[in-house]
What we know:
The structure holds two protein chains of two kinds. Chain A is an alpha/beta fold. Chain A is 37% helix and 29% strand.
Amino acid sequence: MKIAVPRGALFRETLDLLDSLGIDTSEVRSNDRKLVFPDVGIVTMRPSDVPTYVEHGAADIGITGKDVLLEQTGREVYELLDLRYGYCRMVVAEREGTNAMEESLRRLGAVRLATKYPRIAARHFADTGRQVEIVEVKGSVEIAPLTGLVDGIVDLTATGTTLAENHLVEREQICECTARLIANPVAHKLKAAEIDELIERIRGVVA
Amino acid sequence: MIHPIPPGTRDVLPDEMRELRQLTETLRARFEGAGYGEISTPTMEYEDVLRRGDERAAGAGYRLFDEHGQVLVLRPDMTIPIARVVATRYQDEEPPFRLCYFGNAFREVDRRSGQAHEFLQTGIELIGMPEPQGDAEVVALAIEALSDAGLTRHRLGLGDGSLYRTLLAELEVPEEERMPLLEALSRRDLVDVAIGVDRLGLASSASDLLTRLPTLRGGPEVLELGKDEPVAPAVENLRACYELLAERGVADRVIFDLGLVRELGYYTGAVFEVYDPAVGFALGGGGRYDDLVGRFGRELPACGLALDVQRVHVALTAEEREA
């Protein structure tokens, strides 16, 4: 079975999980440049690429954050298990001591937001009946309100440290996110026994 | 200078076309040999007509206006047009009707996914034959046609599209709670299904059944697990299918899948999906749609199955490469 493993924030805990299932990840840990490890069936990649590889069947199963899955709705993958680690929250934040978002909404008709998660942000503001202008950025969202690009941000926070360092305060929580196990729909049928066995073993470890 | 073509469409050059033609000729020979005459219907249909078949069928895809301002839709599949043809053109003939088709269908899909918006579809429709005989005949013919084409590893998932809905009703889950669960299931989000089921506060045996049933898939032993549950009639039909398929010698290609759901809204019973290990998406699918032809004026039980020819071609190529 081919497993798509996310590099980044979920990387260590994912490898710990695989270790506890008896999959040897020592080569993966010791080799930062290499991305494909055919001996143990592991492919490593950015978390946001995991659904792509799994949807197309280039990996049978994969692990990624719920934030990624919420942003990429409509992917044809099975979401099989909440792995419980990698807990973080999707929040709306703005500069401390201001209420730029509320004021923009009242006087200008829409909130201006920067985010790496345009779909999650758009859905949240639509659901709460507010107009929004979304500016999609690829990195360091926190600086967007400080430079006057936007009124606020929608971003993922684990501890709140990055927000605080940039003098941003959380105003709303959109959702909570943890790591999820996903599977390709065809693999889910053709490799049913292997996948079910893996799920049982993971349940034994994370429960 | 680049002259673009619309996203999700493609040009087919002679090398590929020759192989596609050979593939479709093989499939056509098997379908015709089994009594499935080929038909062709318009590429465009009136939106109203498609909506009569399935409220959601005309929801996606390409629309245009004709010279009278009527809304036309590029056909998203061939099943509704064929239901229309049978109900209008075969009003007095004796059923069953066996039909096959080869034609392009059009769907709006997420651009990121790299899937085709226009794709060559082939399929069979068996109209006027009830379950389980009709289901088994269509399933067996699809499996045999793909074997003829040269696939050796293909499998067919067989489930029942109304199974989960029936189960929710039998367990007396409140109406307003059913839709979110069915939607989570059709998104394949089993984590959300489990959360939703948990929230219902049912007895543990009922909760367990609601979370476990969508994951039951495999050989005929799966049907043993489902036979005492409130979904017994559907499971009984699947068992009857299994016996008919065993007689035809194709039962080992079938994966019984009690969690199988199909997007389209007109399925009333068995649902099918075709898999090959070389392709990450289903090669095709179908099911039983006993109410559909009746919506066009002639009550007839029916079922059918469609294949994405290009995906079958990908599977064949992969198999040749690995050989």
